[in-house]
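Predict structure. Chain length: 409.
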Amino acid sequence: MSHPTTSPRHAAAPSTPDPPQAWAPAAPTIALLTALGVLMVGQMYTVLALLHPMATALGTTPGQATWTATAFGFAYAVGFLLAGPLSDRYGSRAVITAGLVAATAATLAVSVAPNLPTAIALRSLQGLTAATFAPSALSYAVHHIAPQRRGTALTCITSGMLAAAVIMQIGAQAVAAGLGWRAVFWFSAALMALSLIPVRRVLRPTLRHGTAGGLLQAFAAMPRLLRRPRLVALYLSTVALMSSFVAVYTAVAIAGPPSIAGNSSAILALRAGALPALVAVPLLAPVLQRLASPLRVVLAFAPAALTVAAGSFLGGHTVPLAIALLLFVAAVAAAAPAVVETINAGAAHAHGAAVALYGCSMFIGASLGPQLTGALTGLGFGGILRVVAVALVLGVLLALPALRHQRIE
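Prediction complete.
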């Protein structure tokens, strides 16, 4: 996990490491960036638990309300491409701070949206501002955490971002049940504003080593990477992975497994049941990393497809369905870092640009997931999951060229 986050600036020239005495304190830095990862990335997923009350308040349907998730995700994908080079140019702490201020305002604005078109526009703005966090946080960890702690830091931060999909849905459902859906955005905005205090106290300013040319170099590397078929296939596999992940949780929210449809407590338990997987996979990272990353991609995608396919037949049985979703989330949590490492290994010296494109493809996939579910609601919960399983099989096929390339080498 220590490779994928090399910045675009360092892709062009060797980095000059900070002297040992300059390393940031690992524990508070990791705790802060992991918590903020849950909060900021989780804004993508909060609306999946709010589709019904939002639809009622905005005068639309839950299926149409999924556009609030899609709009956020597409804007986040674009923002990810911009934030990485900006972080290199102006420093991670500066970009995180500015992004938190902007995201606080955008999140408050979403809470007062009077209709669906306005909510979609404001969610786009929220996604663009929230996107400043992830690449800046990962860049900060690479530059300021001591090498012996860096792997742990990156694993915790990226796991927090993935766990946000579950944690923030649970939190949003609980808040909305007592205070209404708009309160979810009030609380999120308040937490963003309050986090500015520890950001200024814990994070250190980053010296500006980059130049305007550094920005141009980062963007120029992206078209070159997109001319490499194996990397393009891996980016497409990322789209398949994340669209499937979000589609499954959207299906839980709007299609409803037959055994728990309309039962908010059961749906909450189903979401929470995946949390152990998001704790276990980071703990197992040292063992998993003994396998080559392309092999881990294939070995993770395959059980993801199998568990979703099995889950499509378990809608009438809550406990087996919860176990299937637990295994599915574990497979996704194992696949995501393996895809990053494989992309990084094939990116030569353009690591920062490669990871920026990976982040973009992640959130393009996350944006397509709600629309996939919305378009397939007529198939029912089981039918949606069977289509998702096919998408994951496609992800396996897209990852195979990287595995074959490794064997040839």
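Summary: Confidence is low (pLDDT under 50) at residues 1-18, 209-213.
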